[in-house]
Automatic annotation (TrEMBL), chain A:
Gene Ontology cellular component list: cytoplasm
Principal location class: cytoplasm
Protein name, UniProt field: Phosphoribosylformylglycinamidine synthase subunit PurQ
GO MF entries: ATP binding; glutaminase activity; phosphoribosylformylglycinamidine synthase activity
Disulfide bond is among the record's keywords: no
GO biological process per UniProt: 'de novo' IMP biosynthetic process
Pathway entry: Purine metabolism; IMP biosynthesis via de novo pathway; 5-amino-1-(5-phospho-D-ribosyl)imidazole from N(2)-formyl-N(1)-(5-phospho-D-ribosyl)glycinamide: step 1/2
Lineage, top ranks: Bacteria, Pseudomonadati, Pseudomonadota, Alphaproteobacteria, Rhodobacterales
UniProt cross-references to CDD domains, sorted A to Z: GATase1_FGAR_AT (cd01740)
Enzyme Commission number, as recorded: 6.3.5.3, 3.5.1.2
Keywords noted in UniProt: ATP-binding, Cytoplasm, Glutamine amidotransferase, Hydrolase, Ligase, Nucleotide-binding, Purine biosynthesis
Subcellular location per the Swiss-Prot or TrEMBL entry: Cytoplasm
Coiled coil: none
Quaternary organization: Part of the FGAM synthase complex composed of 1 PurL, 1 PurQ and 2 PurS subunits.
UniProtKB/TrEMBL annotation, chain B:
Any single GO BP term: 'de novo' IMP biosynthetic process
Protein name: Phosphoribosylformylglycinamidine synthase subunit PurS
UniProt source species: Loktanella salsilacus
Alphabetical list of InterPro entries matching this protein: PurS, PurS-like_sf
Entry GO terms, CC: cytoplasm
EC class of the enzyme, as a word: ligase
Length: 221, 76
């Protein structure tokens, strides 16, 4: 699997993302935000961090940078994309995923490990999990409060596009949504950090199944 | 020419920051504050002749996230 990890000024989980992808055998290139081309890759990962200092709105400036135009073309071609934390915010700001991420309901930055429910196993990202299973992943964000119009929430539910929900909805997300899939199920945005949970040495490997599942999916394709 | 763009969360979108400000005002003894909504003002210094339609494009493309925010253009 060939993967690209986008790097914006203020990204800070880009190298963790690369480590996680390499761990499952991906050939990873880092792509700077000013690059207008991403190249021929299977997966584009949009990492966490504070791109452009979260100025204006989280992810808004990154979503309009040259590399994001290339990201849109990649997705339009049917490519896979994974956005984690700030990367999820970027994907909603580009319009590649529905909804928006607002300030946490309690207004606090929350940094902890949190239980999640795998809401669907029907995607390249979540196929390595059992639907309904509880996993634990780290979260670290101030703006993870997912919101969308009622009609969009109904559509996400009806199309089985909610990937993960919070077991303890600490940030006030509507329907406790922690991660959503695109209509073609090839784009996933999620606030929790699977790339921070791939090595027993750091205490948690619950994120590994996501990356392994993805490699498997792309190898079979 | 100058223009201000006022960006607010849409009606019906819960504004946790505005709500916190409302609580604080109540705790400080300011009675009768029934609601607070917090937004932002973006002051634009523009080339003369920039059309309102062009400013609207800026709002739609970047200045507001129309999923959750509404905006109002004020040409000064």
């Amino acid at each position: 699997m060939k993967a690209a990890v986008l790097v914006f000024p203020g990204s800070n989980c880009d190298r963790d993302m690369a480590v996680a992808l390499r761990k499952v055998g991906a050939d990873v290139t880092m792509v700077w935000h000013k690059d207008a081309e991403i190249g021929d890759v299977d997966l584009v990962a949009v990492p966490g961090g504070f791109s452009f200092g979260d100025y204006l709105r989280c992810g808004a400036i990154a979503a309009n940078s040259p590399v994001s135009q290339a990201l849109k073309r990649h997705v339009e071609r049917g490519g896979y994309a994974l956005g984690v934390c700030n990367g999820f915010q970027v994907l909603t700001e580009t319009g590649l995923l529905p909804g928006a991420l607002m300030r946490n309901a309690a207004l606090k930055f929350v940094c902890k490990s949190t239980p999640l429910t795998v809401a669907t196993s029907d995607s390249g990202f979540t196929g390595g999990y059992t639907a309904g299973a509880t996993i634990t992943l780290p979260v670290a964000h101030h703006d993870g409060n997912y919101t969308a119009e009622d009609a969009v929430l109904d559509q996400l539910r009806d199309q089985d596009r909610i990937a993960f929900t919070y077991a303890d909805n600490f940030n006030g997300s509507r329907n406790a949504i922690a991660g959503v899939l695109s209509e073609n199920r090839r784009v996933l945005g999620m606030m929790p950090h699977p790339e921070r949970a791939v090595d027993a040495a750091t205490g948690n490997t619950d994120g590994l199944a996501l990356f392994r599942g993805l490699v498997q999916q792309l190898a079979d394709a | 020419m100058k223009a201000n763009v006022h960006v607010m969360l849409k009606d019906g979108v819960l504004d946790p920051q505005g709500e916190a400000v409302r609580h604080a005002l109540g705790a400080m003894g300011f009675e009768g504050v029934n609601g607070v909504r917090q937004g932002k003002v973006i002051a634009l210094d523009l080339a003369d002749g920039t059309t309102e339609a062009r400013i609207k494009e800026m709002c739609e493309a970047l200045l507001a996230n129309t999923v959750i925010e509404s905006y109002r253009i004020e040409i000064l």
